[in-house]
Amino acid sequence: MLLLLLISSAFLLPWAGAGRIIGGKEVKRHSRPYMAYLHIQVLYPSSRKAYSCGGFLIGPDAVLSAAHCVDKNGTVRVTVTLGAHNISVRERSQQRIPVERWVTPPKYSSDGHINDIVLLKLKTKAKINKNVKQIAFSGSNERVTVGTKCSVAGWGWTAVEGRGSDVLMEVELKVQNDEPCKQLFHNYLRHSMMCVGDKKGKKTTYEGDSGGPFVCNQKAYGIVSRGVGTRPFPKVFTRISYFEPWIREQLRKFALQELPGSPSSD
Ligand SMILES: *[C@@H]1O[C@H](CO)[C@@H](O)[C@H](O)[C@H]1NC(C)=O
Ligand SMILES: *[C@@H]1O[C@H](CO)[C@@H](O)[C@H](O)[C@H]1NC(C)=O
């Protein structure tokens, strides 16, 4: 369902991005130096379609995002832009780097967005500077408590009937207990997902802020993963702590150049 939405919006709006932050505000330029903009070019069946996702830098050549962003029917080519604020402009701060390959957990399933996480390996290392920096992510024993307010940024749409934002927007959302997500998503898994959102429905991400980090206390705890149609509440984010050992292992493999070619499922 989400996949179809993503693809159909990509057909209509090649550059608009598959997601939207609603009820947020523009961030101070370069105050989120870990943010990555993913431009995803569909190569098959037609090469004229493209869409975008969010992501975040966790190593000089490593970006985390949502697996469903790169798992489309047909192959895709991914380019990451770091150091961006206004994505419609080629800012001097921007570093545009092609993605060499990526890896998803062996048990990733696009049906229900189970294990919706991907680690992208960049072709060249990013130059770390004041506009481009890594962010730490939560350890396997770290959890944020229900009620904690964390922030999520993206270049998605700013209204349901709106358009993509060219500047980076951010919204604060609360960690919820699992109940609203269990009710709405039959395959909600509390160990690997987190339930997030604004109960009043005034503030939200949509699916194409997909891949962006849910940041609590300067650390990434979640990855924007799924929602239902235009419903603003609740949203399911991938729980990073569950995947921490897997991420560390993949980073070691990146360093050793041992990864199989992408797309891969190891
Ligand atoms: C993927 O695309 C092919 C070719 O267009 C089509 O035959 C197939 O049904 C599609 N699969 C899914 C899951 O949409
Ligand atoms: C982003 O850049 C474009 C192109 O220069 C400009 O038209 C637009 O107003 C800018 N957006 C914002 C919010 O400053």
Looking across the biggest beta sheet, what order are the strands in?
A: 10-11-12-16-15-14
Contiguous uncertain segments of 5+ residues: 1-20
Bound molecules: 2-acetamido-2-deoxy-beta-D-glucopyranose
CATH architecture of the largest domain: Beta Barrel
Q: Give the class-level CATH name of the largest domain.
A: Mainly Beta
Task: Give a count of the beta strands, DSSP E runs of length 2 or more.
Answer: 16
Give me the secondary-structure category: mainly beta
Query: Helical content, roughly?
Result: 10-25%
Q: Give me the CATH superfamily of the largest domain.
A: Trypsin-like serine proteases
Q: Examine the coordinates and then state which fold CATH places here, giving the name of the CATH topology of the largest domain.
A: Thrombin, subunit H
Return the average pLDDT rounded to an integer.
86
Biggest sheet statistics:
6 strands, antiparallel, barrel
Radius of gyration: 17 Å
Taken from the alpha-carbon principal axes, the silhouette is globular
Distance between the termini: 25 Å
Q: Tell me the fraction of residues in β-strands, as a range.
A: 25-35%
- What is the helix/strand order? HEEEEEEEEEEEHEEEEEH
Number of domains: 2
* Number of helical regions: 3
